[in-house]
Amino acid sequence: MNEEQLESFLSIATPYHFTIKNECNDLASASINLESLTVSGKALEDEYIDAILYEDDYNSNLNTNKQLTGNTPNDENKVIAVAKHAYSLYNFTLKANEERDFNLLLYMDPNTPMEDANMNASWKGKITLSTEYQEEDTTIRTISSSDINGMWGYKDKLAKIVIENKKSVKTAEDGGKVYGPFDESADGYGGVQSYVVCDTEETSCTGYLQGTNGIKGNEDCSNLFKGFSNVANIEGLENIDTRNVTNMSSMFSGAERIQELDLSSFNTLNVTNMNKMFLNTSNLQSITFGPNFVHKPEATTSGMFSSCPAPERPSGDTWSGVSFD
To answer: Is the pLDDT at 233 greater than 60, yes or no?
Structure first.
């Protein structure tokens, strides 16, 4: 069989079709395996079996090497104890309650030698699946200054933001509206999500930012709450872990209605940019800083408190001589 004949065959061949669904509320890492089994009589060796795994079009091959022997046997993943070998065809991650459809074509390699050992030989195998619970990454995505994705698309309507240390479905009362959940995670797997809950006329909305056991601050947390000009209250800031954050520039810039901020849980040991952090927070009357709100020697603080009437400034030895102009 030449290449053209093979392509013609593959285009009309009937694949094995199967669906994999994650019915849990957590991420799952999965591996689709093909396990070779012992046959009675003359056996065709694994090296002469080719496999194409795909979702929609067989040309979009998910397993990069068609020949089974091109995939190193991963016998530790054997689901069938008596299987000769297990070959990992595709490794992937499934979101909570996500499902994917797959197709698998199996055929004898056209370059199989026409020798007595291979004539009238048979091959037997089974498709198996190895799965493992995967802890969600609750790192929030980076936010651009003009972001309109997810909760940030409702910036002008929000009057309140609540940061929660668990994920839960939000509902509205008295004919109100719920938008979401929106994926706000850095890796795109939903470890951080948001909802926007509004009243009937959408004149007052609350944004909920959620992550199991809290939210990990992205290294770049600049613009995180920038431009939420109608938000009067941000609850749950203690549910953001800021230990790995390096950039807090413009973090609250333009949050004109906020009157007080409790940053007592913030750890700024690794932050190198605090420029304009509280810029144009014209109604901010009180900021609570904690002992871990420290100043790294190379951290910049230009315009950190510009147009911010709150009298408090971070204190301690690390802040001695620091200019906020």
So the answer is: yes
CA distance 175 to 272: 46
- What is the pLDDT averaged over residues 180-203? 93
pTM, full prediction: 0.74
Of the given ranges (35-44, 60-69, 279-288, 315-324), which has the lowest mean pLDDT?
Answer: 60-69
What does the alpha-carbon distance between residue 62 and residue 72 come to, in Å, rounded to a whole number? 16
Q: How far apart are CA 318 and CA 200, in angstroms?
A: 49
Q: Which two tokens stand for residue 125?
A: 């195998």
- From the list 242, 194, 246, 214, the residue with the least C-alpha distance to 137 is 214
8 A C-beta contact, residue 124 and residue 114:
no
pLDDT at 200 over 70: yes
User: How far, in whole angstroms, is CA 56 from its chain's centroid?
Assistant: 24
Place of tokens 């802040």: 319
**Taking a C-beta distance cutoff of 8 angstroms, is the pair 284, 311 a contact?**
no
* Residue 48 to residues 42, 150, 176, 216, Cα–Cα distance (Å): 14, 50, 62, 49
Cis geometry, peptide bond prior to residue 309 (ω within 30 degrees of 0): no
Domain boundaries, the chain: 3-134, 137-325
First to last CA, the chain: 76
